[in-house]
Predict the structure.
Amino acid sequence: MSETFSLPTMYAPAERAPQDVLEWQTDNIADFSPLRTILDAMPNIVLVLNQYRQTIFCNKALLDFLQEEDESHILGLRPGELLGCIHSCETEGGCGTTNFCSACGAVNAILTSQRGVQSVEECRIVTGNGGEFGALNLRVWATPIENHGEPFIVFAITDISNEKRRAALERIFFHDVMNLVTALQGAADMIMRRDLELVEEFSPIIKQLVGKLIEEIETQRDLSAAEKKELQVSFYPIQSMRFLKQVADFYQTHYVAQGRSIRITPDSADVNFVSDANLLQRVIGNMIKNALEACQSGEVVTLGCRVGEDTISFWVHNPGFMPDQARFQVFQRSFSTKDQRRGLGTYSMKLLSEHYLNGKVSFTSSPEEGTTFIGAYPIRPETWPD
């Protein structure tokens, strides 16, 4: 048999089995004729992986998911490559070999099973096949087995995306919305005492609470529509500085800005461009809100925009630094560095920007420079109606 070849990696081993070894392993597993019948009867996706984390066998559920007729385009690929993970093509070594893979539940479950222990993990995957942005929330099982003295892994996958969406909505509406409604009720009770001074004091509070309540509902509505590819987009001319001032003013009065300041850099470009103002405000607003939450009391969030040859970029900076685990998962659905009720802000800014606004979201983060999120958009998208 041929020898394996060495590849660089930043996490899991990158080496793959040579083609002749892969074919031998596939034939060896396939010789056990009841295996396909058993696995095809299972509703969940099931793979058999070799010691290099490559697929040598799969059931019908995976073929149906990938809309493939047979295994010819599947054998030899790793799970992230099959599912279209955006990080699986970033390095020559493929799935499992980037820094981001250190936070991947699928990779870690497989590595644990290679030590002879069954592992169950949850895995968030951002997908980008064919330019189509998406996200998967998965629960994976990795179980070590042996066949003819050679180690293999039975790798089972269940899509828990709907379970996670439902749980997120329940957390938000049962906690955040209930808190807002309770605060509104308290303010209304005070006003009903018919004290004119209280009316003046509580009217702005009620307005702010109602605005926050509407924001929560609209955020969840738009995110749900975006994931179903049903979100309507309306492109119109926007003036960059006017847009920046509006979004900065709105979030300066937001509850997360208490004790913190927002500043627009004076060298920001003032140009006309075309986009959907509501969706863009949702994206940049999430950047500002995340930045404010990352700041200590008294710190400043700065934002601005610059113009390239055919793009306009908005950026939001805070002095905080994200640790590796946060940076590697920041755009994954339901991941949060704050608490379990959060985790949709960064995911939604990427979803809205890259799937609906023809843009690109990125970030930089270091102890010396702090954290900056950047959204780059075409000044005039091709999809804008003439």
In short: The two ends are 62 Å apart (CA to CA).
